[in-house]
User: Fold these one by one.
Assistant:
Number 1:
Amino acid sequence: MRFLNDLFKPKSTSSRQAAKERLQFILVHDRAQISPQLLQTLKDEIIAVISAHVPIDRDGVEITLTQSRYQSRLQADIPLLRRPRQRTT
Amino acid sequence: MGARVITITSGKGGVGKTTATANLSVALAMRGQRVVSIDADIGLRNLDVVMGLENRIVYDLVDVVEGRCRLRQAMVRDKRLSELYLLPAAQTRDKNSVEPEQMVQICQELRPDFDFILVDSPAGIEQGFRNAIAPADEAIIVTTPEVSAVRDADRIIGLIEAAGKETMRLLINRLRPDMVRREDMLSIDDVLDVLAIDLLGVIPEDEQIIVSTNRGHPLVLDGRNRAGQAYNNVASRILGEDVPFMSFERESLVNRVKRLLNLER
């Protein structure tokens, strides 16, 4: 019976993989004590600060929390808007 | 210095701390070690039942702390192994009846006369956990391969590090190799990847655990099933022996017969 299920099951990520990915996400936030909500607030404020001085692609901004064994790291990837080249004559 | 004090803890409840404490205490005592296991789960005492010693309790940990008896009077000697003792928890009190400093003192008093003191921690991260971890030289973190248990284990690891204890190792309990093979359970490597902590051992899921708890007869006393064998391996590793981790590949018929005949450890 199980092999029939397996045969017709749509190819998706295994529950094992899902568990691992969810855990990694949860633990990054637990360890840094930064909730997804706080991360969104940080993102909004960073966008506000930077865009006050430099034109940026707001939709392309990505703020991520990464971590290794000993350190958590907040990474911001902020694409600048292409500006017309300044002519120097 | 004397005994090594090892606290068995997990954060989440129901992952097998008490079963692990009982089996490791027995396995160490079977190897000739002098062992005391302390039930630090005050108000929800259970280690006595798992070890089959519930009928022998006269005094408990809180009686000792509050001076109603001497430490030795509260210690219950195991009926099978003469070098194994249990210091039971109180059943009618709460976790605040004991202070971390008092746990440290009790262990200090026991250290010269024993090789191992195993402390069974309650679930949670409150006073009961702080009591259990206070005297520890080392910690064994018990988890199951489930998201909630691993998450709590991570939190506990953080708290133990914050308490200035560095020696801790992971015991993965209730692994189901068949589910891992079907990609429906976190593997040993997945858990280690996520928690980044040294592995002490892996105990496969085994319905005999329930049978042994029913009888109050820890599984390691009968070394012929896989979980009992796994606990024996863990005890050897605690003693510093280099025991290879059990393989969870499908067991061949020959090996199965060998194991049942007790021809291999």
Number 2:
Amino acid sequence: MITINNYVKVSSLQEAYELNQKRTNRVLGGMMWLRLGAGRVQTAIDLSGLGLDYIEEDEEEFRIGAMCTLRELELHEGLARYFDGAVKESVRHIVGVQFRNGATVGGSIFGRFGFSDVLTCFLAMDAYVELFRGGIIPLKEFIQMKRDNDILVSIHVKKDQRKVVYMSERAAATDFPLVACAVAIKGEKIFCSVGARPMKAILLEDVCPKKEEAGDFARKSAKAVPFGSNMRAGEAYRRQIAGVLIRRGIEKIMEG
Amino acid sequence: MEVKFNLNGKPVAAEIKADTLLYDLLREEGCYSVKCGCETTNCGLCTVMLDGKPSLSCSILAARVEGREVFTLEGLQKEAEEFGEFLAAEGAEQCGFCSPGFIMNVLAMARELDEPDMEEIKEYLSGNLCRCSGYMGQMRAVEKYIKTKREDR
Amino acid sequence: MQVVNQAIPKVDAKALVTGKPVYTDDLAPKDCLEVKILRSPHAHALIKSIDKTRALKVPGIECILTYEDCPDERFTMAGQTYPEPSPYDRLILDKRVRFVGDAVAIVAGKDKACVTQAMKMIKVEYEILEPVLDFRKAKDNDILVHPEENWKSLCPVGADNKRNLCACGKDEKGDIDEVLKNCDYVVEQTYHTKACQQAMMETFRTYTYMDVYGRLNVVSSTQVTFHVRRILANALCIPKSKVRVVKPRIGGGFGAKQTSVSEVYPALVTWKTGKPAKIIFTREESQIASSPRHEMEIKVRVGADKSGKIRGIDVYTLSNTGAFGEHGPTTVGLSGHKSIPLYGGLDAFRFSYDVVYTNVMSAGAYRGYGATQGIFAVESAVNELAEKIGVDPVVLREKNMVKEGEVMPAYYGETANSCALDRCMAKAKEMMHWDEKYPCKDMGNGKVRGVGVAMAMQGSGISAVDTGSVAMKVNDDGFYSLMIGASDMGTGCDTILAQMAAECMNCSVDDIVVSGVDTDISPYDTGSYASSTTYVTGMAVIKTCESLKKKIIFKAAKYLDCTEEELEFDGKKVYSLKDQREITLRDIGNRVMCNNEDSLSASEAHSSPVSPPPFMVGMAEVEVDTETGKATLIDYVAVVDCGTPINPNLARVQVEGGIAQGIGMALYEDVVYSSSGKNYSNSFMQYKIPTRLDVGKIRVEFESSYEPTGPFGAKSIGEIVINTPSPAIASAISHAVGAKIRELPITPEKIYYGMKKQ
């Protein structure tokens, strides 16, 4: 358990940003992972008074506040409708309802965890993060950036007509995935994001194959992705499963 | 620092540290029904209702409940007994150590879901581990409880 | 029967479901010192020095104890009857540390924060030694886990610390090599089971304090209350009369708490400081420094003739007891003695074994106690034999299973006086629709469903060892107090023993008050393990009730001024068969409290020369994804012969719970070590026990025999139920996709590569 010397519930993003410039201070998400560390936090910065627990939807996009919980994502009707349940599928295996009532979208994305289902799912979408200082940048760029002292404010997901399917392979139902995979197709283009490699998710963008070529395409894609081994599964097995999941994703989208 | 919140329907003010967890604070306040089984948010034993939502008190800073409403099984004795009778009728409470957290989540589910089917129930309760019962007896109890509640309506 | 065989709720149910403070940590005094253990980061090392000066300066620290503060007399933490078969190989703290997580120092202070801080400030200098991590290389290795001279083994179990041997032995009948040579079909395979964790929801925990008589009082979450008294006296080198142990409600045990895992630490602190002390193991500690199942590698040879008659079984078990020998010499025995006898009429059998020390966490007792491992191996081998012969594995078993009345040479020559294994098989077959589903069905979506079967047995108590005694007395208005020494760990023994007493006394369970275990007050009981409570302590209840009834009649005869022979007791009153004279139990209970010289109480003990096995059949239906190897449990059918179920609901939940644990063992649970001996499976995040989404549907039925030596015809139920899932699931997967997995757990990856090998 981490130790925390000081707790501040900030009243503005500016205040949060200023506090977060000190290296020993930390922004709190849902505290699900943060507390498991053994370190010492000087000041814990709580954003929960800033009203960042929203999901807004307009013609253009969804805007998901950083403090929105995974449970809220799961239950949001607009997201479910637009992405045909993909977002719900990406979170419903995560531990349990109580956990998802605590874990935040901001915590999941900012942490850039290798096992993150949420990150894997959004990565296949036209998604952006809004940073207090850094402004709005594509999620695929954000995950390559080094952890810094900026504040994640929200996630924006464009309504760009892409069809998305989320799949994961797990040994036990609520365990971390052995491999997670989101496939999105938009016109001629295909986006495959592969997570739990067990490193953080990676995005492949390509020209969408024909349905009968989906298997070859999926195998080729999986080959291009670096995988690793840990106690849950080996590298070669992960690659194999990723290929299966990508192909199934394509087929599912194409079969509508 | 001081935190003020509503615990089981009564106002409470308590002296806490910045890193005091809600779980520890609740036990200090005499809510011994709240148990800890894992420390890594996997077991569901520490489930309480925070502003009506089932939440893991082991991962919530006590400071964060300022001004909010917390219910533990101590504050829901009537409901606990009502569902508990179904559980005991199956013999499924067994060692009883996971019962409070499990019952909290069953009560939360009964409030949140309208006419859930067995798959929905299983998924809602999947964050509550039990090592004694193999879950079947718990599910029989939940099914009968939900049915009775529905008939009472 | 009015009360026995009835599904009444547990006597403690209401307190449990309303969350009352009845467990160890709920009851501990608020001024207890917080006790924590500094643990070794090395798998094998000698402590060169421990500098605690800075740590002792942390405000609130009461004491920091090291090996220099502990007696140099070795003892065992195994909760077994004296003289324990487990070697005396422990010190409370030792100069030599033997696994990552072994105790180095005990830190006690006023709260968690100061203790945690002090632990970081203790400087330990180690001489790092090479560990023995591979149990296949442990025997006669140059590196010794226990080189010390004061190591000792109290029983002739074949132990030799200079060979890393915790036990070895052999049992055989006939010439197995000759028999197998003449068999038409022989399967020879090696099976590997891992060190699963019991993972009860309440971790190990204990608090201690000194009482007014200068005695050490211990309140602990234990299954072996009386054994803990002896273990602590041995550990601290103090007279047993100086220790009192009390068991409150406990949050599950499954065998974990048949080892005294947590008690010595606060006990030493309280004994040294005179202050109350408490230790609550974290889940991490419960995962890395506890008492899990013995890892075993089991070689099986099984042979049959052309007609499918199984003629011989040869089992060799290599068991890994880890750093200490708790339950090492005894668990291994069950791997052969409770697997081979499932098959009757063998021409020969052989069972041999070695139990070795290694530098990983010590193993202990876990539900099934070696039988689980042995049955996975033997039942898997029999399933492979069926395939080799080309016969349905159910048919092969119907032909060869042990029958009622048969002598079981591999089970100490005991006779199966009650055995409904044949009916269990018939019922399971019907419930599973085996004949339609065997061997598999292609679901047409890349998924195939297969079915698999396994049989199991266990014992009911340890024959001629386990002892249960109970005491019962009549109180005001005629209610009874039932005092037991058996430790209810949530399974409901307080309830079923009260049910038996109520049946005997012809009253309601509400007329009986059951008291939990307090070594100062309760009659002696070996404890709740080895599937003994229902069978052994249950008989003690019956005997005690008989004695008490006689005393009630004796007293009534005095009050009614007639002979005992003409009186009958119907539960409410004693009445004369000759005339109208009668007296109520209520009046007797009240009258004996005035001017009385006959104590209206009785106490009897029971031990059994035999340990009648319960039997069962388990069948699994599993769906396998042929592209990924992911196996999903669809349906599990269990049909059990536990003799008369005393409380059918509690018996059913025992079965369901045991099956679910068995499913966890089969598919998910694994204790994984790094190459340097660090335990990766140190939390519920990394060690996945099944959730309710992982166990499919579990369906249970009973096919009861009547055990002539058991209470109301009962045998045991608690342990046998974990034994069938691993072999049944492995076989179902083999039937579905051909992959033969002989090492647990059966992960998607193993199935995937198993399919590729086809």
Number 3:
Amino acid sequence: MSARQHPSAGSLADLVNRRQRSARDVVTEALDRIGRHDPRVNAFTDLLTGRALARADALDDELDGGGPPKPLAGVPFAVKNLIDIAGLPTRAGSKINRERPPASRDGALVRRLEAAGAILVGALNMGEYAYDFTGENVHDGDAHNPHALDHMTGGSSGGSGAALAAGMVPLTLGSDTNGSIRVPAAFCGCFGLKPTYGRLSRAGSFPFVGSLDHLGPMARSVSDLALAYDAMQGPDPDDPVATTRPPEPALPALDAGIDGLRIAVAGGYFARGGDPEAFAAVARVAEALGARGTVELPEAARARAAAYLITAAEGATLHLDRLRTRPQDFDPAVRDRLIAGAMLPAAHVERAQRFRRWYRTRVLDLFDTVDVILAPTTPCRAPRGGQTHFVLDGVTLPVRANIGVFTQPISFIGLPVVAAPVWLDDGLPLGVQVIAAPWREDLALRVAHHLERTGICAAPIAELA
Amino acid sequence: MLDLSASFDPEAYAAAAAPLLGLSLDPRWLDSVTANLRVLAKAAELVSGFPLADEVEAAPSFEA
């Protein structure tokens, strides 16, 4: 694949702003590639050809008329189908939601990206109601990993990872409640940013677990992540937990390097319970960064368990009416998890929320002595599609519930993370979480950018015939 | 070590809890629902087994 065919979002915007390419040309090329490859990858559930071309033409007219350059001019992007798109029912990977009335307007982050010149080309496949780590979907068909089509994309933002790895678009949006941006970023070999809880507006998206839900960008380069992240920041009264902090752009300091940063590896819980390659990926990144120390996130196994309980209970509460009236229309695997979650005694959920407070305090203390913590993203490479169990550290475990063992203790307290892809050999990629203190996305992005510049992390496009 | 799962009967619990929640349990789902309940019981055991001071408040509306 040549760079001409697959430039970054930033370089595309540069070409469009300088009028060396038209937005229509860029969008048409993306739509063509989606048309060629999506029948096998199944990343997209909706294509917005007419809307995208109309907006591209409008942008071309604006720029030809002397309008100001835009940071994402003409950049085609796509969003997980739990984010509202005007005129479409927001299906959130489900059958039931297709009967909802069409969204009256785009979700907040779509509007912000389009205000920056980006052009929405479609909606992306996902696990039902985001209760998923596999990227499999019984209603729309599974998304397939472009780097090995018989393997999982990871989920629940499976289409968001697959569309990037297939080179269909340079930018996607996903959601992450327990790892749903970071897992597909690892399995599909691309970058993902799960920002601090409350940093980016979730207005106009279908929820899963309100106290854990985040939206964020995924891309094939860290500078594209930062570009999109900066364009999407800002308060939003339509999201009750959106921060009122002013935007803190990450792009200006992206090239600052790692000098002066205190970087450590998460030990203990994060150094066992996975395949050796998962830890080899962390070791490679740590060595490249000169990170020799370790820190231990206290009681991480309990944190993961507490996130599991809160997710089960809050998710079940959200869907209880639908579980009562039309249980047959759910993915059976999702339905049965939700029913069990509905039955969870309140005492256990409340205890988990109290533990959350304790854990947050202890983990934030760690950031007095370190700036960035490294941990594996997943315990293994992408399992095969349909695989139900795997063996980790000699223990056979269900795949669906255990892919997120290393992501859940981090999102549980809302820490910002860049998921960075590592290619140890000719096999499928692995991921490393670059974790920072709350509101320090800039540090995680700086470190990930350094890893990309030095060739330790990369997000190549899959060779699809 | 708190042991919640040894005497827990998920089949009986699911049958008893479903009416309180207004849920109808198809017998074909029972194995899967009870398997999930066992996983939740293990997680609850882990969390509930950790001592917390009375002053530690819940964080249901979490702010980083």
